[in-house]
Amino acid sequence: MQSLEPSRNIVKNKSNMVLGISSFTYGWSAGVNGSHAHLTEHDLVAQTVAFGLKCLQLGDNFPLHKIPAERLSSLATSIHDNGIRLEVGARRLTEDHLHRYIEIAEYFKSPLLRFVVDGDNYEPDDKTITSILRNALPDLKKQKITLGIENHDRFRAKELREIMDTISDDHIGICLDTVNSIGAGEGLHEVTEWLAPFTVNLHIKDFTIRRFAHNMGFTVTGTPAGKGMLDLPFLMEKLEKFSNCQSAILEQWVTPESKLEETIKKERQWADESIRYLKDQIYFKTNT
Question: Which of 56, 127, 147, 197 keeps 20 to 30 A from 167, CA to CA?
């Protein structure tokens, strides 16, 4: 049986994750399937401050490479003035796109860059992914940026673990999402056993799985943090063994209401409830 112990030396101190929110905390407000966005980057900064937090992650639903330079400059000033750790996120791991986002992360002094590998009509194989990551290592090291590759849909945890073992460098790790791997037919416990040693960023997304009334299948839906099936004590126990995870970010799968305005109101209520719950947990720091 293959050992799941890490293949590189890892200091086993207690985890010291910074708690934060994301543009995916407010996915409907950020715009879904072309719908109009109801919040700006400054709204997200203001909400981070209102929660008493010091960490904000902007994901691929808030693509920074498409934002004009003057808005980027204003955002940089805002996060600096509020003492916020900004984490940059993107999708579609190509050589050029990764290089572009390393430059964006450098601009914002972002210590962590989170990437979803796949994009529209783009699903690279493991060899291509490994090559791209190796080529990026010099820039990541130079800028002191940690790259987190997200477990997302088609990738099994074992595949991602093999990529991490091959790269074997602290500047490249895993962004561990608590639900995404259901898309690859895997549950949280299995995924965590494989990927915990390399996890540098955590996406906390609570969920529930229910059988349809006709018994022919299941449905997976989101819940506020602490109200679903997420086994947070198990997850944190595993991650704390390695002390590599820099931040824990609240994400949400909010089931929509009949009107977008009602859905956005529900999304905000869930976020408020979830952050109250997570701030009560002993695992997380609320400042940098």
Answer: 56
9-65 pLDDT per residue, tens: 433 334 589 999 999 999 999 998 777 888 999 999 999 999 999 999 999 999 999
Tell the CATH superfamily of the 17-285 domain: Divalent-metal-dependent TIM barrel enzymes (3.20.20.150)
Please state, in angstroms and rounded to a whole number, the distance separating the CA atoms of residues 117 and 101: 13
Burial 43-72 (b: 16+ CB within 10 A, else e): ebbebbeebebbbbbbbbbbebeebeeeeb
Report yes or no: 235 and 205 within 8 Å, Cβ to Cβ. no
Q: Smallest Cα–Cα separation from 225: which of 175, 268, 273?
A: 273
> What residue ranges do the domains of the chain occupy?
17-285
Pairing relationship of beta strands 55-58 and 112-116 according to DSSP bridges? unpaired
Q: Is the dihedral of CA 140, 141, 144, 148 positive or negative?
A: positive
* pLDDT tens digit sequence for 127-143: 999 999 999 999 999 99
The residues, any chain, with a CB within 8 Å of residue 202's CB and separated by 6 or more, are: 17, 175, 176, 178, 235, 239, 245, 247, 248, 249
Select from 156, 167, 168 the least CA-distant residue to 8: 168
